[in-house]
Each structure stands twice: as C-alpha cells, then as structure tokens.
Amino acid sequence: MSQAAFGKPLITNILRGHVAEAIIALALEPEWAWCSADYAGWDFERSDDLRLEVKQSAVRQSWETDKPSKPSFDVAARTGYWEGGTKWIEKPGRAAHLYILAHHGIYDDSADHRDPSQWEFFVIPSGNLPDIKRISLKTVQGLTSAVTIAELAKVVGEIAEGITHPTVG
Asked: pTM above 0.85?
C-alpha cells in the first residue's frame, strides 16, 4: 500500500500534506514533536507549548493538467480545535503560533514531491497572517522570504524566539 501511495514522484493532494510534514519533521525533530492527527489543531509542538501548523501547495498535481496549479494555502481562522483528538476547545482564531507554508514549485518532469530539496518553506508567525481564508503565494512572498530545508530549523528557531508569550486566537 505504501508503494501505491508514496512510490511515485507526484503525490495525491490527500496524502501530500503528510509528505510535507514528514519532510519538515526531518528538519525540526527532536526539538519539535510531530503531533498531527486526524483532528489535531496543529502539526508540531515544542516543550514550551509553542505550536506550529503546516500547509502545503504544489504547482504539479498527480493528475494530468494543461497548466500549473495556482499556489495558495488555507490559513483560515477556526472556531476552535480538538485537544487530544477527543475534547473540543471552543476558541476562535488560529490554534498555532507559527505557520510553515511549504511550496513545491517544480512543474516539469523532474517534479518529485518526495524530494526535500525541491520544496521551499515560508515561516510566518500566526499574528503576521492577514485575516483571510486562503493566502496566495504572491502574498506570502510579500510577507517573508523562502528558505530551503537546510535552513528551516534555524529560521523556525529564530522566529519562535520572538514569540515570548504563547497565546493565539
């Protein structure tokens, strides 16, 4: 089954988020614990209660298209989040303190969603995101610069240091 799901260079939308999270985990663990699950309110957390959400977008899809997909990311505030997957906490806003927006921008036949070096990452504190549901890549690029997988842990650490009181919402 894993060969069918992950054995090809282009990963279906349903599973590509897991691939992006796994790639990010390679860079951030053990400082950040990968905690995403079906109803998790965020994807990574740190021992000081900082929370991080991953969103991803790719221009090349696993199905045939005649042009690249327009990259955008779901950054909508929510009405609350699930704690431990079983207890609903009603708290409007964004449950994570930081967002990593992962973009795979290769459209030609070399595109391989499994290759960490083909992704670029945008690290943004939740408070710096505009109050919108979806954010375009162009808007993201106006907020921060892209980093590579090799730079990701350092940049996340630097930005996380600027968050002194982990409050969100």
From this structure: yes
